[in-house]
Amino acid sequence: AFIRYHRGITHSLAALPLLALAGALVGRALGGPRWFKPLFILGVAVLLSHLLLDLATSYGTQLLSPFSKRRYALDWIFIIDPYFTALLVAGAITALAWPLWGPRIGAWCMAAAAVYLLVCASYHHQALDLARRIFPDVKPGGQTVAALPQPFSSRRWQLIGAGPAEVQQAFVQLPFEAAMGRGSLEGKASVAPVTPNQACPTP
After folding, report:
1. What is the phi/psi pair of residue 28, to 5°?
2. Euclidean distance between the first and final Cα of the chain, in Å?
3. pTM above 0.85, yes or no
4. pLDDT tens-digit profile, the chain (203 residues)
């Protein structure tokens, strides 16, 4: 049940201002009216950044809940990426623990996390291009391809081609020579048949 409902309505655009408002009202009750506006703005910024980071993962988030149950995902990083998380945590702890020089180190950690995220986005683009080449769509619109990041490595990707009768998958390590126009795509992808009651996964 947790997996099914996680990142549901509490991680949606509709709930964002309501949660920020709740936090600001608590701050107003504890610290007075002057705390309401800054806490509301801070809450919106924090929650919005949280949604954007969830969107970058392969698990995604239900941005339009409760109006839609669709999960939106960019598939740039794994559900929990230890390297990306470590950079964010290190930056936050350093900035809070050492007021004099900590914020500068924290800013460098945030910049490194942003660069890491962009590198993963580039790898996803390469992996998706490989998926389209490994699983050619024989019938236009009849096959869906996806590239999913794997844990503990930003370079290892699972490629999926989902058609009406079968689901194919392959694993690649990037950068891949064939993705850069060198070499050829060799080897066979594993194929799993789809039963009539089995729905094909969509990216």
Report:
1. -65, -40
2. 21
3. no
4. 445 656 778 889 999 999 999 999 999 999 999 999 999 999 999 999 999 999 999 988 989 998 998 999 999 999 999 999 999 999 999 999 999 999 999 999 999 999 999 999 999 999 999 998 888 765 656 678 999 999 999 999 999 998 887 888 999 998 865 444 444 444 444 544 444 434 444 44
Written as one letter, the residue type at 14 is A
Residue 58 to residue 74: CA distance in whole angstroms: 7
SS (H, E, C) the chain: CHHHHCCCHHHCCCCHHHHHHHHHHHHHHHHCHHHHHHHHHHHHHHHHHHHHHHHHECCCECCCCCCCCCCECCCCECCCCHHHHHHHHHHHHHHHHCCCCHHHHHHHHHHHHHHHHHHHHHHHHHHHHHHHHHCCCCCCCCCEEEEEEECCEEEEEEEEEECCCEEEEEEEECCCHHHHCCCCCCCCCEEEECCCCCCCCCC
Query: Which of 8, 131, 125 lies closest to 59 in space, CA to CA?
Result: 8
